[in-house]
Amino acid sequence: xxxxxxxxxxxxxxxxxxxxxxxxxxxxxxxxxxxxxxxxxxxxxxxxxxxxxxxxxxxxxxxxxxxxxxxxxxxxxxxxxxxxxxxxxxxxxxxxxxxxxxxxxxxxxxxxxxxxxxxxxxxxxxxxxxxxxxxxxxxxxxxxxxxxxxxxxxxxxxxxxxxxxxxxxxxxxxxxxxxxxxxxxxxxxxxxxxxxxxxxxxxxxxxxxxxxxxxxxxxxxxxxxxxxxxxxxxxxxxxxxxxxxxxxxxxxxxxxxxxxxxxxxxxxxxxxxxxxxxxxxxxxxxxxxxxxxxxxxxxxxxxxxxxxxxxxxxxxxxxx
Length: 320
Hints:
- The chain is an alpha+beta fold and 320 residues long.
- The chain folds into three domains: 8-124, 3-Layer(aba) Sandwich (Rossmann fold); 132-137 and 140-146 and 213-303, D-amino Acid Aminotransferase, Chain A, domain 1; 152-210, Dna Ligase, domain 1 (2-Layer Sandwich).
- It has ten helices and 15 strands.
- The strands form four sheets. It has a five-stranded antiparallel sheet, with helices on both faces. The protein has a four-stranded parallel sheet with strand order 2-1-5-6, covered by helices on one side. Strands 7-10-8-9 form a four-stranded antiparallel sheet, with helices on one face.
- Helix 1 packs across helix 10.
């Protein structure tokens, strides 16, 4: 960094063991006149701790990794990755699950409130937009309105409607609407055992979709206007548990790239990680978008310059 240049200040809001945060910090500070502070919200009990007051004469402070006191109003950008972490190693002396949940939710609420009231720079992306866009119903409707091809989809807990949908689409999968970290629910084919169990279908809404045939999966990273995609080949319904699969850079048709950018704009986002599938006929089918999905592993698999592209994007947003 050249000493005469003003250092851009960026904070990454995340939790422990977030490799993306540390990789981006190292690359950003190597390439740009920038200082990146990592705010691990599950470790805020470390000094100097969090402080905030409605009295604006009292400075708000958030603790960064390494013990620095970060003042939100001095930041140029906040990369808002995530808050809660139910599996944190912090506060091991607290063993009661209810007490640990209280610490997690209250720390997350205080951190978010301090940022929402004090930070005046660029969000990547704003928490309101990020949380809303994570809702599968919201993103499915946005993709549908913008003309992307979707699998036939029903979100329901009505046994009659579910059975009618599966009769119309004999090859059907079911997956969670949100899911929980403590007990991840795999995407599975719908079988007769489920369709015969009214109680299982009624207990909770789930996403039922037609099974999209084919073994060509596409992981797409959109950072601002830049689109970088990887083609992954797998016979598995969900390729993520087994990453020992072929992966290469992939060029999307211009119309698909434009549609993905349009989805982000509709959702109020500047970045997103998309999952698509290519049918045997060569048609691209939308599956979902994760506003803050994991992407660093795709660089290792497919050789895409993702860390370079992301730091360019993040610095550009911070200095707009």
